[in-house]
Amino acid sequence: MTPEEVLSHPPRALSQSRREFYFENGYLAVERFVDDEWLERLRRIALEFVERSRAETRSGNVFDVAPGHSASAPRLRRLKRPDERHEVFWRFATGAIADVAADLVGPDVVFHHSKLNYKWNDGADQVDWHQDIQFYPHTNYSPLTIGVYLRDTGYDDGALGFIPGSHNGPLFDQYNDKGQWAGCLGPADAAALLPESSAVYVEAPAGSITVHNCRTVHGSPASRRDDGRPLLLNAYASADALPYTPHPDPSRHAGRIVRGRSARWAHHDPRPCLVPPDWSGGYTSIFAAQTGEDASARVSE
C-alpha cells in the first residue's frame, strides 16, 4: 500500500499526526506506550534469559553472546527469536504493538521477526549506521521495526538514533571493499552523506516505543550501563510485501498474519534493493557482522 492508502484507514493506536510524522521522517517515538504491567512482565523475562545465558560459552541458535561473555559476567548481545522462546513475547507481539504496525503499513499485517538486544558497558556494543531492508529485501518498502525500551534509556545507555528523511534517500551498499557483508554503511558514505549532527537520538523512559521504516538509516552508540540495556524489537510488513530472499533468522511465527488477511496481489516498489548473502546457511547477528565475527557473512568478491 502507498502511504496515502495507509493514511486513508482510520487509526487504531496512533494519532493521525503521528502517522503523518512517520511517513515524512521515516521514524517515530511515543513515550510510555507500554503500560507498567506489561513492562514489568517483559523486563522480568528478559532478565531470566540473561541468567540462562550464563551457561553458554559461545553464540548459538538461542543466544548471541559477546566475545567477553562468561558465567560470572554475562554479556548477552541478543536473544534470538524471543517470540518463540516465551509465549509472553508472542502475546505482546500480537497485541497493541501490532495495531501500531497496522496504522503504518495498512490493515493487513504480517509478522516478520523479533529479537531482544542487550547493551553492556564494555565499549564494544556500538551499532553502526545501517538500513534494515538490505538484510531481507521485499517487493516493497513497507517493512518496519517497533522497539520497546524496557528500561529508561538515554544516549549513554545506547539510545536508538535515526537520520530523519533518510528513508526517502538512497539505499547504501552494506558490503565492505573486500566483498564481505558488513551490515552497515561504509566509512565514506557514513562520513560524507550522513553527518552525525543530523541524527536524532530517542532518549525516553521505560515503556516508550520507537518505530523506524526499513529504509531509514539508524544506529546506536555504545552503552555505559553496567547492568545491561534491554531493547525488544518486533518487525512487521504489509501483507502485500513479499520477501524475495531467504529470511535471515525465521521463527515459527515468521510470515504469520497478525492483523487483517493475506494479500492476493503483491505490491511492487520500482526502486531497486541490494541483495544480501544467502542466509539459508545461517545468520548470527548484526553485531557479529559489523565486528567481522560472522564467517557466514563472507561472499566471493
Can you give the mean pLDDT?
A: 91
Q: How far from one another are the termini?
A: 36 Å
The portion of residues forming beta strands comes to: 15-25%
Q: What is the global morphology?
A: globular
Q: Count of helices?
A: 8
Element-level helix/strand string: HHEHEEHHHEEEEHEEEEEH
Q: What does this entry look like structurally?
A:
It is a single chain. The protein is α+β, with helices and mostly antiparallel strands. The protein is 22% helix and 19% strand. Strands 1, 2, 3, 4, 6, 9, 11 and 12 form an eight-stranded antiparallel β-sheet that branches. The model is unreliable at 295-301 (pLDDT under 50).
Concise synopsis of the structure shown:
The protein is α+β, with helices and mostly antiparallel strands. The chain is 22% helix and 19% strand. The radius of gyration is 18 Å and the shape is globular.
Structure characteristics:
single chain; 301 residues; alpha+beta; 4-stranded antiparallel sheet; globular; disordered C terminus
Helix and strand layout, with pairings?
Elements: H1 3-7, H2 16-25, E1 27-30, H3 36-53, E2 63-65, E3 76-80, H4 82-85, H5 87-93, H6 96-105, E4 109-119, E5 127-130, E6 144-149, E7 161-162, H7 187-193, E8 200-201, E9 209-213, E10 218-220, E11 229-238, E12 257-259, H8 286-291
Antiparallel strand pairs: 1-9, 2-3, 3-4, 4-11, 4-12, 5-10, 6-9, 6-11, 7-8, 7-10
